[in-house]
């Protein structure tokens, strides 16, 4: 089990997100008011607090949301989760859709540090069941659900 450390949003793509007191996850959409929300597979991004802390220990001066992450999570090795894994909060349910992403334009963090952790440590999810998410909420790992194929 892990816990939510921070909830971050931005109203524009391509900029750092800012921490907010809570977020509302909308089913099959993402965090209300976030620029990356919508009907696609990368509705909510997550990054582990441990990965951010290790990056800071190498000299990075980063704040919550600087990598474009929506949720910072403590206690779960997010990058080790297989696609399809489900993450359950008190009210919400997320499903892992992608591990990492290519950094096409090399963000400011990359230009300063020579690397960015989001491409290898960040994960993306879609919202299966919406609800409120707040710092301090617990997050449980649930196994992926098998795909049920229709038989004719």
From TrEMBL:
Pfam families: MOSC. Residues 18-142 form the MOSC domain. It comes from the Bacteria. PROSITE patterns: MOSC (PS51340). One of its GO terms (molecular function) is molybdenum ion binding. This is MOSC domain-containing protein. It comes from Desulfovibrio legallii.
């Amino acid at each position: 089990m892990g816990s939510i450390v921070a909830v971050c949003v931005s109203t524009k793509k391509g900029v750092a997100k800012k921490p907010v007191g809570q977020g509302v996850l909308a089913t099959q959409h993402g965090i209300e008011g976030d620029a990356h929300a919508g009907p696609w597979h990368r509705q909510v991004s997550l990054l582990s607090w441990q990965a951010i802390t290790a990056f800071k220990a190498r000299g990075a001066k980063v704040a919550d949301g600087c990598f474009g992450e929506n949720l910072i999570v403590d206690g779960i090795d997010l990058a080790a989760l297989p696609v399809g894994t489900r993450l359950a909060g008190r009210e919400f349910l997320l499903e892992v859709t992608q591990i990492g992403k290519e950094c096409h334009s090399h963000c400011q963090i990359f230009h300063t540090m020579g690397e960015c952790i989001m491409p290898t440590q960040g994960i993306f999810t879609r919202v299966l069941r919406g609800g409120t998410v707040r710092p301090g909420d617990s997050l449980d790992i649930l196994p992926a659900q098998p795909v049920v194929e229709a038989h004719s």
